[in-house]
Design a protein that fits this description.
Elements (H helix, E strand, L loop, with lengths): L19 E9 L4 H12 L1 E2 L4 E7 L11 H22 L8 E7 L6 H10 L4 E5 L3 H6 L12 H6 L17 H4 L3 H12 L14 E2 L1 H8 L2 E3 L1
Helix pairs in contact: 2-3
Length: about 220
């Protein structure tokens, strides 16, 4: 069971001297949906390595919308990643225990998406990207997705089960019952959906697309939920 320490950290309770720990810092475009999702998966997911404790921190939990554009997220994440790499080297931390820094953001018709993805790639920063938005990943927990959304997030949100909009917190909030036990199918559907795009097509032009599963497995260290 995980223990939430403040609004920006989902660090589990650990005992000194037992097990191994890796810190993961995440910059999210959304202030509600993505942090809700991360909290649920971190708390209830099955770890790929039971001996490895993952401490998750939402790096920009207190930021407002003006500081949640893709390029802004990437630029700050690159700086933080560099700082954490220096700290890891000084402390002799390496391998699976190395600190990770991620960005989760959407296309959502942001004008700087292409540049943000290129900047992240240049600096080796991992990004979990969705087109047109994170709602595509939520939707894949319930049904397959085909065709295109025309870059309109509202089109993806409209396909979510109607009861989501009437749930506590509204349509932006993510509840455990909406996603738990759905990871395997969501991942399979995502891979099928993504495969409709040729490798020649730039990531920012792939609609629909999501690779949030990479963050789940490589960042959170979760194999299923």
């Amino acid at each position: 069971m995980a223990k939430t320490r403040g609004k920006s950290s989902f660090a589990p309770v650990t005992r000194r001297g037992r097990g191994r720990s890796r810190a993961v810092y995440v910059f999210t475009e959304g202030k509600v949906t993505e942090p809700d999702y991360i909290r649920i998966v971190h708390r209830h997911g099955t770890p790929a390595d039971p001996a490895l404790t993952v401490e998750v921190h939402i790096a920009n939990a207190k930021d407002d919308g003006s500081r949640r554009m893709p390029m802004d997220l990437v630029e700050r994440a690159v700086v933080l990643r560099r700082e954490k790499q220096r700290e890891d080297r000084k402390a002799g931390v390496k391998g699976k225990l190395s600190t990770q820094v991620w960005c989760l953001f959407d296309h959502d018709n942001h004008p700087d998406v292409e540049a943000a993805l290129a900047h992240a790639k240049k600096h080796g920063l991992p990004v979990a990207f969705s087109h047109p938005c994170f709602e595509v990943w939520r939707l894949l927990h319930h049904k397959a997705v085909s065709g295109t959304f025309g870059g309109v997030c509202g089109e993806a949100a409209e396909r979510l089960p109607g009861e989501f909009r009437n749930a506590p917190g509204g349509g932006k909030a993510v509840l455990g019952e909406q996603i738990l036990s759905g990871y395997a199918e969501a991942r399979k559907r995502a891979l099928t959906m993504n495969a409709q795009h040729g490798d020649h097509l730039p990531l920012h032009k792939r609609d629909p697309y999501t690779d949030v599963y990479a963050f789940v497995e490589e960042g959170l260290g979760v194999s299923s939920y």
